[in-house]
Amino acid sequence: MKIKVLGSGTAIPSLKRVSSAYLVITEKCNILVDIGPSVVRRLLEFGYSVDDIDVIFITHFHVDHTADLSTFFFACNYGEVMRTKPLFIAAGHGMLRFYKNLSKVYPWILPKLYELKLYSFQGEAVEIFDIKARAARVNHNKESVGIRIDSDGKSAVFSGDTDYSVNLAKLAQGTDILVVDCAFPEKKVKGHLNLNTLERIVKKAVPKKVLLSHLYPEWEDYRGVLHAPYLMAEDGMEILL
Ligand SMILES: [Zn+2]
Ligand SMILES: [Zn+2]
User: Fold this and answer.
1) Residue 149 lies in domain
2) End-to-end Cα spacing for the chain
3) Which pLDDT value is given to residue 123?
4) Hey, which of 48, 60, 89, 91 would disulfide with 52, CB 3.0 to 4.6 Å?
5) Ligand nearest to the CA of 19
6) pLDDT, tens digit, for every residue of 104-134?
7) CA of 113 to the centre of ligand 2 (A)
8) Is 239 among the domain residues?
9) Which residues have CB less than 5 Å away from ligand 2 (the ion)?
10) Which DSSP string corresponds to 161-200?
């Protein structure tokens, strides 16, 4: 399993970091985790197109995690190649309602030549291609989930935006990598983690690596030293598990 960081930033427009999103590459499929502004363009920058994506997982519906979903759908109908292969999208509670509302605003996104499968995580694992995915409610807004992807003996957990969460600690138990919203080094902001609150999760879950992402500009001035298992995400970074 390989993880490519497409974005490591937030809702704050930045030339350095687009909104946090990841490409997970397994033997049999390419998965997008979150799809905020500029993510479709980032795919191209890193040599992929929308047609290469088989699965999209969405941690929650905030704009910085979903704005390019309509861009993606539109490109499936009106891109260089019309999409014909199925697309599977899963998110927390309310996925169907979100899609229906989006397609009321943008009726051009309704699939022309491909099958779209929408799924709301309810607690049980989903098996598709060579992956098994599970989600757990996290502490941000009502539909927010952390998502765990297991494939070929490796696992990656994506927290999405969250505050301290026991569910996330359980989901990330022993995982190879926890890719985590650690919005600020020290500042306490409700609904987000900082290094202190994250450490409580890391102590419980003991992940092999912790990739800090969803980084607000405060991180650029951070002068503290990060030790293993912590790593700071950069757009374009690639991690092989
Ligand atoms: Zn959010
Ligand atoms: Zn966010």
Assistant:
1) 2-231
2) 5
3) 83
4) 48
5) 2
6) 999 999 999 999 999 999 888 999 999 999 9
7) 32
8) no
9) 64, 161
10) S-SS-HHHHHHTTT-SEEEEE--BSS---TTS-BHHHHHH
Percent residues over pLDDT 90 in the chain: 96
- Please give the order of strands across the beta sheet that includes 55-57: 116-120, 87-91, 55-57, 30-33, 21-25, 2-7, 238-240
Percentages (nearest 5) of helix, strand, coil residues in the chain: 25, 30, 45
pLDDT for the residue 51:
97
Q: Which ligand is nearest to the CA of 141?
A: 1
Give the mean model confidence (pLDDT) for residues 48-52: 97
pLDDT digits over 190-226, tens only?
A: 999 999 999 999 999 999 999 999 999 999 999 999 9
- The answer to whether the bond into 37 is cis (omega within 30° of 0) is no
Q: What is the DSSP letter of 208?
A: S
What's the mean per-residue pLDDT of the chain? 97
pLDDT value at position 80? 86
Which residue matches tokens 């998110």?
A: 91
CA of 112 to the centre of ligand 2 (A): 31
- Bridge partners of 199, per DSSP, are none
Q: What 3 state SS string does 38-59 have? A: CHHHHHHHCCCCHHHCCEEECC
The reply to whether 174 falls in a domain is yes
**Closest ligand, as measured to the CA of 12:** 2
Tell me, yes or no, whether 95 lies in a domain: yes
| 56 has a pLDDT exceeding 90 | yes
For residue 237, being part of any structural domain is answered with no
> Mapping DSSP to helix (H, G, I), strand (E, B) and coil, where does residue 116 land?
strand
Q: How many domains does the chain have?
A: 1
Which CATH number covers residue 173?
Answer: 3.60.15.10
> Encoding tokens for residue 124?
């049980």
Res 133: pLDDT? 98
